[in-house]
Design brief:
The structure is a single chain. 54% of the residues lie in helices and 16% in strands. By secondary structure, the chain is α+β, with helices and mostly antiparallel strands. The chain has a three-stranded antiparallel β-sheet with strand order 1-2-3, with no helix packed on it. The longest helix has 46 residues, at 70-115. It is flat.
Length: 116
């Protein structure tokens, strides 16, 4: 079996755990989360490669800010994340367009060599 990349494996585990934690219809968090310390809980999950993995869930409490409310801080972090994702998508599209143009150019050059 081909080994699945760390990026895909880790994202899948995070998605599973967040889905479990946020599933309010079935009571959520039914996968034996164990208290690790005052800030973290953990669980054992099997990843896409069949390897048991230890996953930690932590709670980060943001510092109080005098320049913005808690709601504004949360929204600013959401906006920053969305902006980064949009930038990544834009760069990926530019790379794909460049790759397409480069391929067309190479094919044209190859064709010209063959006809010369």
């Amino acid at each position: 079996m081909a080994k699945i990349s760390k990026t895909v494996v880790d994202k899948t585990l995070r998605d599973e755990i967040f889905e479990d934690l946020m599933d309010f219809t079935s009571g959520g968090a039914d996968n034996n989360y164990t208290k690790i310390n005052d800030r973290q809980y953990g669980c054992i999950r099997t990843d896409l490669n069949g390897v048991k993995r230890y996953c930690r869930i932590g709670v980060i409490v943001a510092e109080e800010r005098e320049d913005m409310t808690a709601e504004e801080l949360m929204q600013s972090e959401i906006d920053a994340y969305l902006a980064k994702q949009a930038d990544k998508a834009e760069k990926a599209q530019a790379r794909a367009e460049k790759a397409k143009k480069d391929k067309e150019r190479r094919e044209k050059e190859k064709e010209e060599k063959e006809n010369a």
